[in-house]
Structure formats: C-alpha cells, structure tokens
C-alpha cells in the first residue's frame, strides 16, 4: 500500500525518501539521509537514515510519515525493518535512550503530535562503528477505522546527553492488505450521475 516503502526510489534534497515527508522537534543538529553502506541496508541498496547528532534537549524526535488509502475494518499487516546506532552503543550504556516507534493517525492527518499512541518496535541501539550490525524487524497487524490512515515512524532520543549521536535506519516498510478500488466489477450499475430530475 505504501509508496517507496523500500526506499529504492530516490531521496529529495533534504534526504527524505520520495513519497515520504519528515517531521522533527529537534533544536540542534539533525537530518535525514540515504544510507547505502550494505552493512546498514536491510533490503536493496538504500535505506532511510534519520539522525540526531546534537541537542541539549530531552525527548527529541525525528521521523517520516506517509498517508495511504485503506479499507475500513479490514486487517493490514505492518512490517518495519531497520536498526538503531548510538554513541553509547548499547541500551545498557544509553539507558534505553534511543528508540524507534510507530503510530498512526486513523483519519489520515499530517500532524505527528496528534498521534494518540506510539508503539515501540523493540529494537536496541548498537554502536556507531562496528563491522557488522544486527538487522532488526518488526511485524504487527492493524485495523483501520477510516478510509485513509497516516503511518508515522520516528526515532526518539530521550536524554539531553551532550555529544551523543543517534542514527535511526529504516527500510522495507510494508503495509499489506486489501487494495482500495482494486476489486470493483466494471458491470455495476451507475451511481446516479445519469439520473435527472423529472
Ligand atoms: Ca531498501
């Protein structure tokens, strides 16, 4: 259902993948970019990086989102792949300071601050510079309550630790389920457009 969920279709000048939009509340140094080092790319040749490299604030976020048309009350499978890297290098050392979360706006809105519930994908941070990384994945099922929904994915840097960087790598985001408008028979009667007042 998602466009460019595997991030192979290019990135704009701010480093955000085509068909996605970005959001953040970081006051400091941060950015989005195209990851191409194979050791950090779970699928294909590109992944989306969201990086927070300097801030003195706590609870800073950087993310991406995309709105899709869906069928109400039908189950959809959501899959997210990626990994987290940090200066601290492990959740024990960073006090679980770097997390990836997803959330939805069931009405298809564009405001990440309106998301009522964020879900942790369960990934832990790994060091910034090692030879190989564990590629993480996350799977769940969701049931849309409206005809469109917006999927938000964000990296969360919890602590105001100086000179500590967090890189959130996202790839192969898939939302699979019934396609909207894909199964309408062509011989259905019209919807009233030919109807005229007597
Ligand atoms: Ca990819």
Instruction: Give the cofactors and ligands.
Output: calcium ion
Distance between the termini: 43 Å
Query: Topology as H/E string?
Result: EEEEEHEEEEEE
Strand content: 35-45%
CATH architecture: Sandwich
> What is the CATH topology?
Jelly Rolls
DSSP strand tally:
11
**Overall shape:** globular
Unreliable parts: 190-198
| CATH class annotation | Mainly Beta
Helix/strand structural class: mainly beta
Q: Would you mind describing this structure in some detail?
A:
The protein is 2% helix and 42% strand. The strands form two sheets. Strands 2, 3, 5, 8, 9 and 11 form a six-stranded mixed beta sheet that branches. The chain has a five-stranded antiparallel beta sheet with strand order 1-4-10-6-7, with no helix packed on it. The protein is an all-beta fold. The chain has one helix and eleven strands; from the N terminus they run βββββαββββββ. The protein starts with 20 loop residues before the first strand and ends in a 22-residue tail after the last strand. The chain binds calcium ion. Calcium ion is lined by residues 6-8, 41, 43-44, 46-47, 171-172.
Which keywords apply here?
1 helix, mainly beta, single chain, Jelly Rolls, five-stranded antiparallel beta sheet, disordered C terminus, about 200 residues, binds calcium ion
């Amino acid at each position: 259902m998602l466009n460019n969920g595997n991030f192979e279709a290019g990135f704009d000048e701010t480093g955000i993948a085509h068909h996605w939009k970005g959001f953040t509340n970081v006051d400091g140094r941060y950015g989005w970019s195209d990851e191409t080092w194979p050791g950090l790319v779970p699928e294909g040749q590109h992944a989306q990086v969201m990086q927070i490299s300097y801030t003195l604030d706590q609870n800073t976020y950087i993310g991406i989102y995309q709105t899709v048309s869906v069928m109400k009350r039908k189950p959809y499978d959501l899959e997210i792949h990626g990994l987290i890297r940090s200066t601290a290098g492990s959740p024990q050392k960073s006090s679980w300071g770097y997390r990836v979360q997803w959330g939805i706006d069931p009405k298809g809105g564009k405001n990440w601050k309106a998301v009522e519930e964020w879900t942790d994908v369960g990934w832990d941070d790994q060091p910034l510079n090692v030879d190989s990384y564990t590629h993480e994945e996350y799977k769940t099922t969701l049931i849309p309550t409206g005809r469109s929904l917006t999927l938000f994915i964000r990296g969360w840097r919890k602590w105001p630790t100086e000179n500590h960087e967090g890189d959130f790598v996202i790839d192969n985001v898939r939302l699979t389920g019934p396609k909207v408008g894909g199964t309408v028979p062509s011989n259905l009667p019209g919807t009233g457009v030919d109807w005229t007042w007597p």
